[in-house]
Amino acid sequence: MKRSTILALCAFGVLAGCSSSGNWGWYVIDPSTTNGQNNIRFLLGGFWATISLSLIAAALSMTIGMIIALPGMSTNRWVRLPSRIYVEFVRAIPLLPMLFWVFYGLPVVLRSFGITISIDAFWGAIITLAISDSAFTAEIYRSGIQSIAKGQTEAAKTIGLTYTQTMRYVILPQAIRRILPPLANQFIYIVKMSAFASVIGMQELTRRANELVVTEYRPLEIYSLLILEYLVLVLAISFFVRWLERRMGANESR
Amino acid sequence: MAEPVIKVRDLNKYFGDYHALRGIDLDVAEGERIVVCGPSGSGKSTLIRCINGLETHDEGTITVRGTDLRDEASAHAIRGGVGMVFQQFNLFPHLSILQNLTLGPMKARGLTRKAAEARAMSYLERVRIPDQAHKRPKELSGGQQQRVAIARSLCMEPKVMLFDEPTSALDPEMISEVLDVIVDLANDGMTMICVTHEMGFARKAADRMIFMDHGEIIETGPTETFFDAPRTDRCKQFLSQILQH
Question: What is the pTM of this model?
């Protein structure tokens, strides 16, 4: 696994190596020239937006997901129903149309309720990503929590714990180890989906690459670098998550 | 006679179309020790799970120490005085033995850690495994785990103990160490209902026997009479099968 990632990176390096030959125009991002430096700086400048966008959206998604998931596991179908509807409904909306709807449509809806706020690209993207992703995190929580044997909840009940205490001290500490890997996967999805924010003008990685392509007209080289940027970002997340899992595994032998 | 600790009247329970409990009436007096037996699927476990609200009942009434069991709030109130031991132990695998025992007293009763730990240690001594306090459940044998589960229940200082086939998941050589602990409890005057197939234990610990079949109480009576002179054919047949070996 690790070796294959290194190989992929080497392949990129070789590709970059044939800079002056044929139709390649790596000069646009050649760090030895001023223009190249400026271009690279401009492209890398999108990192901060992509990262903060993804982090805030993920945090919101994890919170909303939990609020949706908990009633979704109730034995009372009327408590369960709104949660199921939310998941089925939100999961069915493609990200891009939802982004347009939130960015262009939501302010109109809010205005009809007398609330006048403008939603900028940053928050528009965050709201969309968070809501869209929360349906999936809710399902991840649900399957993780339901994988903990029913006997655990019953034992907690019989020693007088309330529902909240049962969740907090008995179920969630056990479920977290099963929830974490798919949740990390979902975070990687958010990072990649954040590229859609470019279409409403958010100055993140993809938007910057697009803008540079328009002025430099070197799509192959610039988009290659863009992919490399996402690759580095996602690999960093993967390594962090694996470290986190190992740490939790060491603390908590099952 | 004093008001019974547990009073069950005309209890009916369905799982879908399946009629699991049929018109159960049961009074349990303070200090009474009852063993429930019967073939599997006869509703024994369902009955005691209804008594502390782990299963909801469809018809009839259950009153435990004056509280009418009707919803989750009343079930929560009732469980405060009713301990339960499960066939599968259901210890919390992510906590140490000591933490398993202190969780309830600290979170549900508001005891300080120190008080809860002192109480936990005294009950661990009572079930004869104080030296295992800092291990995880999976490091213990099945018999030890079940004794921890009993101690965990006792830490809540219940007035009634319910046992749901406490030795059925154990290797044969571990059964007696668990039963000994329950017999001790019985001798101390704990009110209890125990579902079990261990008839030797029943003779030793029970005041009264209940035989169930197909969701009904077929026969009930003092332990001696129950074993020596069962009245119904079904009960006779069951006893002859179970006592054969």
Answer: 0.81
